[in-house]
## 1
Amino acid sequence: MVARTVDLRSDTVTKPTAAMRAAMANAEVADDVLDYDPTALRLETEMARVTGKEAALFVPSGTMGNLISVLVHCNIRGSEVILGSNSHIHIYENGGISTIGGVHPRTVKNNDDGTMDVDLIEAAIRDPRGEIVYPTTRLICLENTQANCGGRCLSAEYTDKVGELAKKHGLKLHIDGARIFNASIALGVPVHRLLKAADSASVCLSKGLGAPVGSVIVGSKSFIARARILRKTLGGGMRQVGILCAAALVALRENVPKLEDDHKKAKMLAEGLNQIKGLRLNAAAVETNIVSNLVSKVLECVFHSSSIHLDCKMLSQVSVACFVEYFSVDSTKFMREHENIHLLYISISA
Ligand SMILES: Cc1ncc(COP(=O)(O)O)c(C=O)c1O
């Protein structure tokens, strides 16, 4: 009998808890576009405090948070942003910074640990003397944790180095901190310290933290004032948005301490998968809530029951034969349907 289903496709598949639903039902609200919504203001004030920034702004998604942040920093068409070859902004956000913002991306290779070599970042900065032919570098983006590298954490020291480089060249630093709370818990370093060198950051509430909707961007008061206008331009101004922010406040209060457990489960999953003949994971590289199979390509994994019975599984070309033998999966069909999925995510629902 199926006792429980755990969906590991993403840490976004969480459901709001009873406490979140109650908070939403009882939220005090007003029109956040006309002036402000009191519950949104409470969330934004709390997020500014936790991240050590002057101000914060609730946005509907991480994608919009990153887009707004890049556009505020690169407000002249033909600006260039330096970002990781494996970054979410570059790969998964529909090229919005280019199609909507006229911002040119310049990628630097992400190392397996999620960093980009600082000397390679410096080498990618355009020489202003060549402005007759070059775009103008205005921004560097980091991602912490780096999702596509398997949820690896960037240290405060590394981020500081990139921040110093940005300052030296008159550039801004934005951090896609979709999972910055995971990094903070894993490293034992407060979020505000990890973001100290950043001019702006976007933080997702709807991933590991389990809120149903939303991200918050943080930065200086003037950055947030410009971000608020852009949010409206992009259709992200929401009226009684306190309904959503109320759930996010519960997520902040109740779920941050649970992330440590997610990380332990991810590690356990990686070590367990490693016991399977033909599967090779670098379990030591599992630092947070994402299990990435960097050698063979791990696809989706849906557990049925807490025992070892795996239904419809996943696997790499290398190890698919072995998996088929183990679990009698229709491998060809599965590979066809899931060929792009190569990460497993652990979240509070798992
Ligand atoms: C690192 C990272 N940044 C940004 C996003 C975008 O968030 P959203 O799905 O809320 O647009 C994601 C989504 O998975 C992500 O993993």
## 2
Amino acid sequence: MVRPRKAVARLKKYRPPLEGRGGKMRLDFNENTVGCSPVVVRALRRVLTSDWLARYPEYEEGRKILAKYFGVEPKEMLLTNGTDDAIKMICDTFVDPGDVLVVPAPTFPVYQFFHEIAGGRLVGVRYDEDFRLPIEKMVAAVKKRARWVALANPNNPTGTTVSKKDVATLLRAAAGTVVLVDEAYFEFCGETVLPWVRKFPNLVVTRTFSPRHSKPSSTRVTSAGTSKRCGPIAPSSAGGSTPWASPMCRVPPILS
Ligand SMILES: Cc1ncc(COP(=O)(O)O)c(C=O)c1O
């Protein structure tokens, strides 16, 4: 038998429910329980032809529209196949074996998943008993040569937010570290650091259509970053993104 890499063999199995969720109140994946907007359904019906389904998507038009929506240049944004794909691209681009990722604990497990596949090590900074994130401990952990930091804001599963002041503190302290601010739940809190992507060259912001727009079945991640950031990430994405993927932006990255 050909053995997988050690980093892969060590991974804990992720066991999501693979069937039997239809017709039930599904809260386990943070899906929108009232369904997708009828406007989206109408738009999809309009374009859904056998030819459309048979073609790899053309990204440029959608990218321009989304860039306008997010207030960034198209070249500052990548489209990815969901936030998960954006996270994988960050690991493919920046993580060597032994590199450190700093995350709040607990948080969305996918950062750890792709980081460990790349052979990286995880440092978790625990929330205090009032579910506040001790930002000074995050900063201290980052200063010990972290390669990247992942901050879901708002966080999953705590539902807590980190103030913009604290995010700025982290960004300044982590000038040589990639800082991903995952704004998958931005629409539930309204605070964003997306405009900072031009100010902080180490910042990547992701947004997703999944939770707010209730479209996980056709997820589009848009991450916006500055061109410096998108520059290094883009080559790892097979020409902007894989032919079947959606959007991700980089240097101030937005994913949606
Ligand atoms: C914090 C966070 N980021 C990203 C995602 C997944 O986003 P996507 O469906 O775009 O991969 C989730 C889904 O649970 C999440 O909780």
## 3
Amino acid sequence: MGRLTGRLFVGFTTALICFIAYSSQIFVVWPWYGRVLSIELLTLLVPFNALVGMLLWNYYLCVVTDPGRVPPGWQPDVQDNDGYEVKKLTRGPRYCRTCDAFKPPRAHHCRQCKRCILRMDHHCPWVNNCVGHFNYGYFFRFLFYVNCACSYHLAIHVRRIYVATQTWENFESSEMIFIILNMATCIPVWLAVGGFSLYHFYLLSGNSTTIEGWEKDKVATLVRRGKIHEIKFPYNLGLWRNICSVLGDSPLWWCWPTVTPGTGLKYQLAEGDDPDAENWPPEDPTHVPMPEPDPNHKFSLPSSPWTYQNGSVNPYLQPSNARRRQTTRNGPYSALPPYHPDYREPEAVVPYDPASSSEDEYDNSRSGIRVRRGSEGYEIKSINREAIMQGFIEDRTREPGRYNYYDPEVSSESEAEEDPDDSVPLAAKLQS
Ligand SMILES: [Zn+2]
Ligand SMILES: [Zn+2]
């Protein structure tokens, strides 16, 4: 994403927050309380503005805080096994080829930021920044305050409408418009951010990031298919310590934007006797790794723009229905009526002979009847009713002794001993 697009996203988000937060107070709540400053008005609006203030503050911190970069020349401490993620296949440390540098545990390369991000969660367009080790706390608090402020905002509006229906008072037109606009913007935000927050509450409770959530899903699939044994997620330290690792050790400051503890280069592992605990994410043992790209290989376009020889497409890439119709058209019994221009004379049907059928291949030589011999015996494919009937009739008529056949054979004797009369032309005979 370009710099300008990113800034537009941030500008749009800020404008949306400010519209929902302040237009509701100026055009809905202020006229409702008679445009006079009162204790009731303050008790309603002070908590709301506190929530909005915390929301904007955390949003600002999330946008401007560096999510965490790998210090130049950083190398994993191979001696210290604690918090050191090992790549299972090579048993070596993680390495980012794009950055040409070692990758600390839980760090991932972000294509938009063009660098490795410590404890990368995801790249968020709404904050035009990656969400990583140092700003995940602000991001999480921002989501929390969006939920609180939206709920408070909706409660004010629902109460406003309820009071109006009780007293049958008339709204001012501007008040009416802003109630509708505020509901129309706040409810979608509340639902979308609410769902997103639930997912992040779940992730935080298990001390995993969005990327690690995907990795967990992949591992669960591998376990279900019996490819690997069950592996415990190594960073899950228990609910309390998981929250502390992101929001700080003291619950009193959980809602306050505090700096995330730790350096982001090393993470506490869960105690356990599982020797594979540090091999996260586990690899699929049946997965064949892609070969290293050949740096000398040059990609070149084929000389002809056509897929198949000159000016044609690959016949095997024809849609199956068209091919099936074609088979029927060329088959023994045309699907077309005789007056159709594409109609062809039917060919003779040769009955199926298993001895002559080729192994493991559809035999198309016997027009229309497709026979295949596989590991499970003979399979006969799509033979039409007329062909069955024809085959049946032929079987019956060939039964020995059932019918006497007249074979107009020319005997060899008559050929040898030609009637002398036969060589004389008929005209000559008539004349004689
Ligand atoms: Zn990188
Ligand atoms: Zn990023």
